[in-house]
Amino acid sequence: MRDKRVTRGRPGQPRPGRTLDGTAIPQRQRASAAPLPEPLVGPAAWEDQGVDPLHDYRRKRNPGRTPEPMPAGPAERAAGEPGAGGSAGRGEPPTAGVFVVQEHHARRLHWDFRLERDGVLVSWALPKGVPDDPAANHLAVHTEDHPLEYASFSGEIPRGEYGAGVVTIWDHGTYETLKWDDREVKVVLHGSRLTGGYALFRTGDDSWMIHRERMPLPDRIVPMLARIGELPTDDGAWAYEMKWDGLRALAYIGGGRVRLLSRTGQDITQDYPELGGLGTAVGRRQAVLDGEIVALGEDSWPDFERLQQRMNARKPGLAQRLAPQVPVTYLAFDLLHLDGRPLLDEPYRARRALLEELDLQGPRWQTPPSFTGEAGADVRAVSVQHGLEGIVAKRLASRYEPGRRTGSWRKIKNLQQQEVVVGGWKPGEGVRAGRFGSLLIGVQGDGGLEYAGHVGTGFSEQALDMLWQRLTPLRRATSPFASPVPPEHARPAVWVEPVLVIDVAFTGWTSAGRMRAPTYRGLRVDKDPSEVIREPVPQPSRPG
Fold first, then answer.
1. Which residues are catalytic, by number?
2. Of 67, 68, 107, 516, which has fewest CB within 10 angstroms of its CB?
3. pTM recorded for the entire structure
């Protein structure tokens, strides 16, 4: 299997990419970008007034020399032929429309910011581009209105013509109008690069300023869950991720700070102080990330047993003391919100591309790879090789469904099977009151029956009744285990003679000899409990 690392593509543009404030950055491939949205066409105020809003645009251009669009003027159209239009009635600004930002390598590099309004593209030239810092204002020089067809224009304007130079589409999308008058324009953009609120305000006749608005983050998004399932048969429709042995957590990032919420909504920010740097990892942007907190072992792969030292460190000051000894890492695998734009309805493929563009590769955080174009069986083999729980298959076209466990995300576990001896039970609660809640299990060792953990899942109602009838006559007063049983398991335990053998599936062994995530599979009446030992774990053959 290929060694896949997170990489970021660059757009197919004739000049090096840069942010709108002029600093160079790696950029995402635009080859698969969504097509330009169609302008919203309707009647415009100038149609009734005999006014051509594109008069200045036409006056400055020679249609025989420039490739720029040159639509027919009002006097040139045949009777009844529709003209360019807006979307909200005559003279009214649209509540929604298209926007485009064009990188213009003219005599001086600048970016043209255009908003559809009343049948034309209202335009501003931005010498320093669109600011990404809400605290910064950039100059925006109001220029002549452009035709709607200009929203899809890219090309080279010949030397000697007005605006000579290369024009490329830097971003495009749709927008919503919050306010539009002669002094101020406020919009919410929905583009590939630009999302969230922006405001333009007049400072002189044609001089304006533009800045990015601060948008509130959602208070809480309940994490989406995966169903246990089998490997998909159509690999091309899925992405595969490793199932990290960690603690699920959503990271809410804004204003240079991060807030971490567990799967149940508990604020765990103070428990992991070394993740505070996530607040500045996305620069001045706002984001909600989905991921897992892991503790890496000596082999640089997640070690759940090591993580438990931090999960139980809830006393004030204890996390600060443990952080240098048992540091954690945040693995971000999804992006749910970016710069005021909810991404829950975007397909996984699009969310993942935006996540990778954030380039989250820091001392205590990273974006692990998502494998597309790979066979799921190959990805799973790697997870087995590194002792992980399994893999997660995510449908490329799937949306993010908070709190739901759907088939769009499949959890494929690396299950091992093992016979174990039942040495007792912990009393059940709720629907299992009056029966056992979990079975205390073990395997034979040099000194006798060694405690291997407890299993509480995988039982059908029939299995619960059958095992209960078999276990109750076997009660005894003392523990049958030769090795110590943790106090939290021993205190409520009801001990039994170690004669019943059951089969369990599990994901691995801890260094303390405990089974990880065991699940009941069945009773083995054909097995002698004295012969039940810990079986060796088969190792997959290495590629090559």
1. 243
2. 107
3. 0.60
